[in-house]
Amino acid sequence: MNMKTFVWVIILGAQCPFLINCFEPVSGFVAGVAGIGSIIYTGFHGLRCKIFVCCDKSQISLNIQGLREDLSRKLHGQHLVEKAVAGHVMGHLQSVDPHKALVLSFHGLTGVGKNFVSRIIADNIYRGGLRSPFVHLISATKEFPHEGMVPFYKDQLKQWIEGNVTKCERSMFIFDEVDKLPSLLLDVIKPYIDHYLELGGVSYRKAIFIFLSNAGGTEIGKLVFEHWQSGKQRKDIKLSDIEGSVMVSAINADNHNGLWHSQLISNHLITSFIPFLPLEKQHVRACIKDDIIKKYPLHFPNEHEVPEDYVDEVMQELKFYPPAEQVFSVTGCKRVSEKVDYVMMDKVLPKQNSRQKLLEL
Predict the structure, then answer these.
(1) In whole angstroms, what is the distance from residue 269 CA to residue 204 CA?
(2) Domain containing residue 293
(3) Type and span of the H or E element at 340
(4) How confident is the model at residue 358 (pLDDT cuts 50, 70, 90)?
(5) Cis peptide upstream of residue 182 (ω within 30 degrees of 0)
(6) Are residues 234 and 313 in the same domain?
(7) Are residue 232 and residue 335 in the same domain, yes or no?
(8) Which ranges of 102-203 would DSSP assign to H, the alpha helix?
(9) Residues 45 and 90 in one domain
């Protein structure tokens, strides 16, 4: 109870030493007692949420403008992702009673932004982003490394989802390397993303599930390269141009693990399959500038201040394919940060040391 609430309770007590005299008839008395109870509970809840993290608007609130701006400004070369993610997330979070949990499946090669977009979503919904107690990241290879322990993992995963959604119905679950998960383990998730009103007295409809996978990435790369060879604009690629081929390729894969061989696919429970395109040199250059600005804001406050020759040096440390055309980055933007550290060590640090010596003189 905050001080203001406490003062009002004292004033009411002073004015009405015998509550029965203050609330006439009896219905008024009952209403008055209920009102006091509500005030006290509200004050207690507010105090509790100042001490502990609560699943309420103070911790969970969609920043629509921030989500749009971050996807537009920070994500490079992924126009299909930008449109699909913004639309689905906004639609789900603005619905008072969604028909089912939001389930987004991100597909693409390494370094194209799948984890990065997950972080952008978390940052614009949850206070604390990925560090929020209501955002849960699970790595398939780390958490479920042994195929022979699938029965144990199934019970563990079931309890984990139920426990977290019981605490907060707006929980978000991110499954990384989902293509390495046994399909039988993924089947455990099916009831929680289906259209059930409740399971065991708990609604899972407001939860968010995001699956990150390399499955279909090679096929996406081939389709984008063919599109480039034909002389077409990258921005002209449509979701319908890729989605069908990627699904067929992944389902027919020799590896029978992962999302594609689970009941989540056969029961049509995925809200959207979102392909991440391989990144071209222009997109990697943008990632390099972002990283330099982030690490050296005093030296380079914006992208226009970053010398192009610095960017060129970092680019020389990265690999591109196909061997003849050198169009797409082998690792996307994944290795950009470490290469920026390597190149900038000889650029910025000597200047900093020289400036420090001058100040000492």
Answers:
(1) 13
(2) 281-360
(3) helix 336-344
(4) very low
(5) no
(6) no
(7) no
(8) 114-123, 140-143, 150-167, 183-186, 190-193
(9) no
Is residue 88 within 8 Å of residue 162, measured between CB atoms?
Answer: no
**pLDDT tens, residue by residue, 330-348:** 999 999 999 999 999 888 7
The two three-digit tokens of residue 290, written as one number: 């972002």
- Are 219 and 236 within one domain? yes
Residues 6+ apart with CB under 8 A from 48: 54
Residue 85 lies in a domain: yes
Question: What number is the average pLDDT over the span 135-143?
Answer: 93
Question: In whole angstroms, what is the distance from residue 177 CA to residue 190 CA?
Answer: 18
Regarding whether 220 and 187 lie in a shared domain, the answer is yes
In order, the DSSP letters of 123-145 are HTTBTTGGGSTTEEEEEHHHH--
**Pair (70, 45) in one structural domain:** no
From 245, 275, 305, the end of a domain falls on: 275
Backbone angles phi, psi at 288, to 5 degrees: -65, -45
In this prediction, residue 357 carries a pLDDT of 46
pTM, full prediction: 0.82
Location of structure tokens 């029961």:
267
Asked whether residue 232 falls in the same domain as residue 330, the answer is no
Q: What is the per-residue pLDDT for 31?
A: 53
**Phi (first) and psi of residue 226, to 5 degrees:** -65, -40
Indicate which CATH number applies to the domain containing 179.
3.40.50.12190
Checking if the pLDDT of 220 tops 90, the result is yes
Answer whether residue 247 is part of any domain: yes
Helix 281-295 to helix 336-344 angle (10° resolution) is: 60
Cα Dmax for the chain: 92
**pLDDT class of 240 with cuts at 50, 70, 90:** confident
DSSP characters for 32-46? HHHHHHHHHHHHHHH
Is residue 249 scored above 90 in pLDDT?
no
* 174 Cα distance to chain centroid: 7
Domain count, the chain: 3
Of 303, 246, 319, nearest in space to 277 by CA? 246
Is there a domain that residue 99 lies in? yes
Residue 359 has pLDDT above 50, yes or no: no
